[in-house]
Amino acid sequence: MKNFEEKTIQSTKIFDGKVVKLQVDEVTLPNGHTSKRETVKHPGAVAIIPITKDNKILFVEQYRKPLEKNLVEIPAGKLEEGEKPEATALRELEEETGYTTDHLSFVTSFYTSPGFADEIIHLYLTENLIPLEVKKDLDEDEFVELIELTLEEAEQYVQTERIHDAKTAYALLYLRLQGMKRT
User: Fold this and answer.
1) Distance separating the N- and C-terminal Cα atoms of the chain
2) Once rounded to an integer, what is the mean pLDDT over residues 157-170?
3) How far apart are CA 93 and CA 59, in angstroms?
4) Active site residues
5) Which of 103, 110, 140, 175 is most buried, judged by most C-beta within 10 A?
6) pLDDT tens digits, residue range 129-140?
């Protein structure tokens, strides 16, 4: 295996925001030349595949400002400092869907955009949804609508680009490969 490692010579922080940080690194390339790399630093996130007792998947529809449109997605959220991914998954499930669970199964972790960002998403599955007696509040700047779809309906949403994000497409592929019933 070839070594394609780029060694950092210097890092310059450009922006430190609520969700992301931006830095520019000067690097030495494998051929000895130098270059610059712009990197979005992200604390990581979780996503949850919530399956109801009648074999439907819970999604949330929300407006995504960078895209200027609504998307239908699996529930997800950013890791808070010091928070374990499983705790974040449970918190986001409760806030966004009004359900909790007594069992989250870890599926996998994956990078969202490794060409310019270090964001990693930890994907969980739950098939034991328990309605909350008292709904949790969403973040003050978060507005979502809960949607229940079969796997077949969700795949149709992919074709019409109502589902158009990588984490949700990844989750649907996982379910298809696991043989989820198409009801």
Assistant:
1) 45
2) 97
3) 10
4) 140
5) 175
6) 999 998 877 777
Answering whether pTM is above 0.85, one says yes
DSSP 139: P
Contacts from 148-152 at CB under 8 Å and sequence distance 24+? 148/52, 148/56, 148/57, 148/58, 148/59, 149/56, 149/57, 149/59, 149/72, 150/55, 150/56, 150/57, 150/182, 150/183, 151/57, 151/175, 151/176, 151/180, 151/181, 151/182, 151/183, 152/182, 152/183
Identify the bridge partners of residue 100 per DSSP, sorted by sequence position.
130
Between CA 172 and CA 180 the distance in angstroms is 10
For 75, phi and psi rounded to 5 degrees?
-60, 140
Tokens of 177: 């490969």
What would the two tokens of residue 166 be?
A: 């990588």
Strand duo 120-126 + 45-50: pairing: parallel
Q: Show the tokens assigned to 30.
A: 């494998």
C-alpha–C-alpha distance, residues 18 and 93, integer Å: 21
**Using an 8 Å Cβ cutoff, are 81 and 171 in contact?**
no
Residue type, 164: H
Q: Tell me the mean pLDDT in the region 166-176.
A: 96
